[in-house]
Amino acid sequence: MAQITAAEVNKLRQTTGAGMMDCKKALVEADGDFEKAIEILRKKGQKVAANRADRESSEGAAIAKVNAGSTQGVVISLNCETDFVAKNESFVTLANDLADLALGFDNKEAFLAAPFSGMTVADKLTEQTGVIGEKIEIGSFEKLSAPFVGSYIHAGNKIATLVGLSANVDGAAEAAKDVAMQAAAMNPVALNEEGVDQSIIDKEIEIAKEQLRQEGKPEAMLDNIAKGKLNRFFKDNTLVNQDFIKDSKVSVAQYVKSVDSNLTVTGFKRVALG
């Protein structure tokens, strides 16, 4: 059995919001496995946020850029080790300069090999690692193309998003920024139901059924009730189905259609640090 430390219990408490004793019991039951402990808490009815694969446990700057025609965007993270460096003006300038360059490349490997400031991007990062005294590297590199692309960077450069729309119509710029802000604030797992990974769906159904068993619901009723809970999961966690943050009476999809009846959200990218 793994030895559970107070620091591990506190980390789980801060991540999930569950009580200290519940966190300790979950870690003991999971034999110290952090992700398994989160799942155990959720099965026992704790309101724990669904896991997000795009979260990076590092400091740095997340920057989104869009080309002049608003048809393509890139979002990158320039990672470092401390918040002190992440807030440094020259570090943020470097992140922005690199993001501008990244617009011209389709993948991270080609971008790292690109010329920049008399050397390659990769060599520049190595140079800065020596100068700053912290490991400096490109973490995320995400591209998005659409008839119209908008972006949003949250204050402090900790979250950056891109959103694609189906057409460049009047009001598209404001709509794209609003939806990009939505993606930053509400952290959806996918664009719509079809985009949710089957493993996530299976896990949500399993968790819902276990919660219902804990409540004493008959086994014969579990499938139907679990499907209802899954539909709620889709509403809360897929971008186009979420309540619009500026007007909770409509979904994101409905808001976009209010701008233009044929307008839809075609995709999004989100990078988060910390």
UniProtKB/TrEMBL annotation:
Localization per Swiss-Prot or TrEMBL: Cytoplasm
Pfam families: EF_TS (PF00889)
Keyword Nucleus listed: no
Keyword Plastid among UniProt keywords: no
Keywords (A to Z) from UniProt: Cytoplasm, Elongation factor, Protein biosynthesis
InterPro entries: EF-Ts_dimer_sf, Transl_elong_EFTs/EF1B, Transl_elong_EFTs/EF1B_dimer, Transl_elong_Ts_CS, UBA-like_sf
SUPFAM superfamilies: Elongation factor Ts (EF-Ts), dimerisation domain, UBA-like
Function as written in the Swiss-Prot or TrEMBL entry: Associates with the EF-Tu.GDP complex and induces the exchange of GDP to GTP. It remains bound to the aminoacyl-tRNA.EF-Tu.GTP complex up to the GTP hydrolysis stage on the ribosome.
Family matches, as NCBIfam families: tsf
Name of the protein in its database record: Elongation factor Ts
Native source species: Flagellimonas hadalis
Gene from which the chain derives: tsf
